[in-house]
From TrEMBL:
Its cofactor is Zn(2+). It holds the Pfam family tRNA-synt_1. This is Isoleucine--tRNA ligase. It comes from Gaoshiqia sediminis. It is found in: Cytoplasm. Its EC number is 6.1.1.5. The gene is ileS.
RNA sequence: AGUCCCGUAGCUCAGCUGGUUAGAGCGCUACACUGAUAAUGUAGAGGUCCCCAGUUCAAAUCUGGGCGGGACUACCA
């Protein structure tokens, strides 16, 4: 082993990435970071499973950088961190990519290819990019346990999911209902939204539309509407599908929309009437030119129809009013014919009042359910509830309905005429386009009954079935649901206990989603996914749900015994044995489960409900299913406090998961355990390209994470992502930013380390000396140690509250501004030359401690370089017990070392120095030229005290000999006064402006009077204003006759007169500088000793002679001679002053 | 369409509970420094704090309404 700190020629973070990775793998550091925490409290992290059927992108680095940062931090805080990797393997994207690669469509499944072959293809497809994912995980330094990842298609995983479904089933939370889905009566099948988005599906068609009149029921709820009304009162609602009007059960208004009540006449019958519609749509339904016509002079049949606006109402006010059923064919069971409110209502077209037929519109269905409005259903011969239109697209034939239902609910007189008619003529092969449609006939009927306000043809776009070319209906189709609405309050209450980052996603996006919760539609009519473990008899009277393979197995055996099945397809499986091999003997996917026919208690056959479940249930089940709970690992769910794996302490994913994984985790945990699934959550924003556009492969603006890591290493990438903007804001990703981080932060940190290594190696510093008590160290050391402890505190608090951006920025500022730019710069002389004394040792110890602490603080964010820095430092000193920074303990701030007063003083020093350097540059006075003095006005003793404490630092930094403090008494200070708005504002309010004006008029005498007496009285608008010294800020801005700089409250003047003595010293320093440069250009070692020969010149002879010892000591010269001339070709010519050149020969000793 | 996020210098972002010269880094221009050197410092130019209204003595900050960008969820009379 080398006995020196490693010195680097250049910083190659990409290579460091590789070297450190190799070391981690050789040392098995990741597993050690867990095993060394054995027995400690756990910190549970849930990995949202990615789908490996796509390549990972740069945004995955973002989410994973966040995850990794907190898992590493918690490890350093001593927790045993659980983080099991997983794969999401089911779902539509997988199916689509299989269909693409096999060149088939959904229709071909079961004909061209068997379900079995198809699912086998899915199984292969889904793990296609596993290698790439693992490689990214490795190279970006994401530590997650990949030894035994959970895989959602695994039979054991599915079994846990089944178990969860069974719990819900037993609690009555799983039920069969319907959702409104696009349905093609011609094809007899539902269409997915994907199918509906095929090109050409939406076509412009001309349909008969109607504005119908819904008569208000006059009762106490509607009485307020009747003020000034002397004719029948109606709500107007428009529809493009009059065939849905018989199924109307509600009217929907926008709560904030303004509605008007208008007195007029029905254009078809001429009957007087009063109607309600949205104010914004008045002009569509009434000719504004007719506004002045007299209502009294109207005769039925007149072309011009007069009208009169009687009143205005908001939608909110109309809610709750009842109306009469428009078409009385069928009576609904339940609450109906009421005005409700919905946010989706607009005033773009129609009347601003939406006709609601819950059985034929998705919005309708949802808003009806939320308001407790019943759908209009009929009972068929089998006793099943059905919409008024059957699956062929016809109004139900009377003979197909349950006679008892017909007797009680159906008005056969009016319905008979329409019974059995297709709602779209296209569905009836026998009809041509000329035949009148149901829409027209209903419209005509309404006109006759004085219920139609307007009937007209209207062109709009309407979806069509891609296979039959015929129009699609929105139609209720069977679906299994989870009754999440039943636990809504619990979901909300538990959500309020979760720490969301940012909070707004939790209260806003997620909170609002919970407030408007509808039941979770679990069904998917697909092939590759977790099958519903539910078997039913054909009539639906008997249902069985299975929560384990064991139960299903037993039931199969029963069926075999009953002769329903010939043999058990899961033969060979041993119920109750949970090892992998046993579970590999079976397959719980389709088509295998579909072949299982069971026998009900009454002897009837039971068939599996053909649906799969929503893949989001798969991933939301991972807290349980990742460990095959409750079949295995049961004890880890009922552990001593803080030792289990549920719930998670922390999760992090993109904000797009709010209604996805975040919800399903939360919902399942709430329903199963009445617990949150996660306690803290970061939902990060998107990664956009540098122009703020979404990244996509198609546009070619996607950034390849592998290339970026290869070029820069993952540390700068991670650091950039975490610190450039808050993770929950969108990140405009620009590689130039990554490069900047590399240069600014890692470059500076690396330089600081290299500086340390260079001198520590020269002086043989190994941190073998006893640590010098901080109180005995020089002020500069105590200052950086104070800041360091403040930093530890801030970084610790930031990470504790899940604020990685704050943490990273604080570290970066400390390293750049304080450690490198101030501490090291001012300390350079202490390391360079001189004795190996206490001051020097203190300088080394302080810098060493700062660096090793920075390594620990940065380790969660920048795991590679931090570990290299840590090990490089520790290798020689052995000060740290752990072989990797990731095994080390996170630093704890020592409050007693934080000295705010000292931090303030140093802040004065920094500001003063930069002001003086600014003045020098204005006067073109090189820093090498010493100057005599600065003058500082002091207005209070405290400031003087602070300034004096750092006086020497300032003087040496700016190369000035002394400070002169100017007090008031000298009479040469000019003061400025400014009111303190913060104290005066609340006291005097309105006259504040006038106070400010008077104060700014103060003369020097006024100011000193105020200062002397501590108060001053003003009279403004007869009001007495008593100013105290706290109410004003007094500063100086000018010292007449001097070169002055002012910043905030500090003013400094610089004496720019250069005496002969100062001039000579300046020349000496100029020589030192030039000689050092020559040494460096000659590639001498820092420690080489030299001899110097300088060719005489009258300009500097005296200065060189006078400062010979000084020059020699600084340049390590044992000899300095002024010579008349040097041999030709020897020596270097440098410029010492304007037009003054010197020839210098620097020779290395023997 | 709804919900949520964002809008401050050419670019990326700070600016907490309102307080009077709105900051930093990058970039640009000029200059300086120099045994940390593919580093560093100083200065300069660069702002209708998206717009409008309100509250207030005082608004980048609080309220309301727009506009623009983005995400999710919906697809509708």
């Amino acid at each position: 082993m080398s006995d020196k700190f490693r010195e680097y020629k250049q910083l190659d973070l990409s290579q460091i990435n590789k070297d450190v990775l190799k070391r981690w793998e050789e040392d098995d550091t990741f597993h050690k970071s867990i095993s060394t925490r054995e027995g400690n409290p756990t910190f549970v992290f849930y990995e949202g499973p990615p789908s490996a059927n796509g390549m990972p992108g740069i945004h995955h680095v973002m989410a994973r950088a966040i995850k990794d940062t907190f898992c590493r931090y918690k490890t350093m805080k001593g927790f045993r961190v659980h983080r099991k990797a997983g794969w999401d393997t089911h779902g539509l994207p997988v199916e689509l990519s299989v269909e693409k690669s096999l060149g088939i469509t959904k229709e071909d499944i079961g004909s061209k290819i068997t379900v079995e072959e198809y699912n086998a293809a899915c199984r292969r497809e889904v793990m296609k990019y596993t290698k790439e994912w693992e490689e990214l995980t490795r190279r970006m330094g994401y530590w997650v346990n990949m030894d035994d990842p959970y895989i959602t298609y695994d039979n054991r995983y599915i079994e846990s999911v089944w178990w969860l479904l069974k719990q819900l089933f037993d609690k009555g939370l799983l039920y069969k209902g319907y959702t409104i889905q696009p349905y093609s009566p011609a094809a007899g099948t539902g269409l997915s939204s994907h199918e509906l988005n095929q090109p050409g599906c939406y076509r412009e068609v001309k349909d008969t539309t109607a504005v119908a009149q819904f008569a208000v029921v006059r009762d106490e709820k509607s009485e307020f509407l009747y003020e000034g009304v002397d004719s029948p009162l109606y709500f107007l609602a428009w529809t493009t599908t009059p065939w849905t009007l018989p199924s109307n059960t509600a009217l929907c208004v926008g709560p904030r929309i303004t509605y008007v009540k208008v007195k007029s006449f029905n254009p078809y019958t001429g009957e007087p009437m009063t109607v309600i519609l949205a104010k914004d749509l008045m002009s569509v339904h009434f000719n504004l030119n007719n506004a002045d016509l007299s209502l009294d002079e109207y005769q039925p049949g007149d072309k011009k129809i007069p009208y009169q606006v009687l009143a205005e109402y908001t939608g909110e006010e109309l809610a709750g009013v009842n109306y009469e059923q428009l078409i009385n064919w069928v009576k609904p069971n339940g609450d109906a014919f009421r005005v409700i409110t919905g946010d989706f209502v607009t005033t773009e077209d129609g009347t601003g009042i939406v006709h609601i037929a819950p059985t034929f519109g998705a919005d309708d269905d949802r808003v009806a359910k939320q308001n407790g409005i019943a759908p209009l259903l009929v009972t068929d011969k089998e006793g099943k509830l059905q919409p008024l239109v059957d699956r062929k697209g016809r109004f139900y034939r009377l003979e197909d309905l349950d006679p008892a239902f017909v007797a009680s609910n159906v008005n056969t007189d009016t319905y008979r005429e329409f019974s059995g008619r297709y709602v779209k003529n296209e569905y009836d092969e026998l009809l041509d386009a000329s035949y009148s449609t149901v829409d027209v006939d209903i419209a005509v009927m309404l006109k006759k009954e004085n219920k139609a306000f307007k009937v007209e043809k209207h062109e709009h776009s309407y979806p069509h079935c891609w296979r039959t070319d015929k129009p699609v209906l929105y139609y209720p189709l069977d679906s299994w649901f989870i009754r999440t609405t039943a636990v809504k309050d619990k979901l909300i209450a538990l959500n309020n206990t979760i720490n969301w980052k940012p909070q707004s996603t939790g209260t806003g996006r997620f909170g609002n989603w919970l407030e408007n919760l509808v039941d979770w539609n679990l069904s998917r009519s697909r092939f590759w996914g977790t099958p519903l473990p539910i078997w039913r008899t054909e009539d639906g009277s008997q249902t069985k749900c299975f929560g384990s393979v064991e139960d299903l197995y037993a039931e199969i055996e029963k069926a075999v015994a009953a002769g329903v099945m010939s043999k058990n397809p899961y033969e060979g499986f041993v119920p109750g044995e949970y090892d992998k091999t046993n579970y590999e003997k079976i397959d719980l996917h389709r088509p295998y489960v579909d072949d299982i026919v069971l026998v009900a208690d009454n002897g009837e056959k039971m068939f599996r409900e053909p649906d799969l479940i929503d893949v989001w249930f798969d991933s939301g089940a991972m807290p349980y299913a990742q460990n095959h709970y409750p079949f295995e690992n049961k004890e880890r769910y009922q552990p001593a406090e803080g030792r289990g794996v549920f719930p998670a302490d922390f999760i992090a994913e993109g904000v797009d998961q709010t209604r996805g994984w975040f919800f399903t985790l939360h919902a399942i945990a709430t329903m199963i355990d009445e617990s949150v699934a996660f306690r803290n959550i970061i939902s990060n924003g998107l990664v956009l390209d540098k122009n703020g556009n979404k990244m996509s492969k198609r546009l070619g603006n996607a950034v390849d994470p592998f290339e970026t890591i290869e070029q820069y290493g993952s540390d700068p990438l991670r650091w950039y992502m975490l610190t450039n903007s808050q993770p929950w804001d969108n990140l405009k990703f620009d590689v130039a930013g990554v490069d900047e981080v590399r240069r600014k932060f890692f470059g500076t940190l690396y330089n600081t380390y290299n500086f340390f290594a260079l001198y520590a190696n020269i002086d043989g510093f190994r941190f073998k000396e006893a640590e010098i008590p901080v109180s005995e160290r020089p002020e500069l050391d105590r200052w950086i140690i104070s800041l360091l402890n403040s930093l530890i505190k801030e970084v610790g608090e930031s990470l504790e509250t899940y604020e990685p951006t704050r943490a990273g920025r604080a570290i970066s500022e400390f390293v750049n501004e304080n450690l490198s730019n101030w501490f090291v710069r001012l300390s350079r002389k202490r390391y360079w030359g001189g004795e190996y004394d206490t001051d020097k040792i203190s300088a080394y110890q302080t810098l060493y401690t700062s660096l090793v602490t920075v390594a620990k603080l940065s380790a969660p964010l920048a795991p590679f370089y931090a570990d290299l820095l840590y090990t490089d430092l520790n290798k020689l000193t052995g000060k740290e017990a752990d072989q990797s920074v990731h095994l080390a303990e996170f630093p704890i701030a020592d409050q007693s070392l934080i000295d705010k007063g000292l931090e303030q003083k140093m802040d004065i020093a920094q500001r003063a120095s930069s002001m003086i350097l600014g003045l020098r540059r204005k006067e073109k006075l090189k820093v090498r030229q010493p100057l005599a003095k600065i003058m500082v006005p002091v207005l209070n003793p405290r400031f003087r005290e602070q300034f004096e404490a750092v006086e020497n630092i300032i003087l040496s930094e700016v190369n000035v000999k002394e400070v002169e403090y100017l007090t008031d008494t000298a009479g040469i200070i000019k003061k400025k006064i400014k009111p303190n708005f913060k104290t005066l504002g609340p006291k005097y309010g309105k006259i504040m402006k006038q106070i400010a004006a008077s104060v700014s008029q103060f003369s020097q005498t006024d100011i000193s009077e105020l200062e002397k007496s501590g108060g001053y009285t003003l009279n403004i608008d007869d009001q007495t204003v008593a100013l105290t010294t706290d109410d004003v800020e007094i500063t100086t801005e000018d010292i007449p006759g001097w070169l002055v700089a002012t910043e905030g409250e500090m003013t400094i003047a610089l004496d720019i007169h250069v005496t002969e003595e100062l001039k000579q010293e300046g020349i000496a320093r100029e020589f030192i500088n030039k000689i050092q440069n020559i040494r460096k250009e000659s590639n001498f070692e820092v420690t080489d000793r030299v001899s110097l020969k300088i060719v005489k010149h009258d300009f500097y002879n005296e200065a060189v002679t006078h400062f010979r010892d000084y020059i020699s000591s600084q340049t390590l010269a044992y000899d300095l001679i002024l010579v008349d001339r040097l041999e030709d070709g020897l020596g270097t010519v440098v410029e010492i002053d304007q037009d003054i050149e010197a020839c210098i020969l620097v020779e290395k000793m023997g």
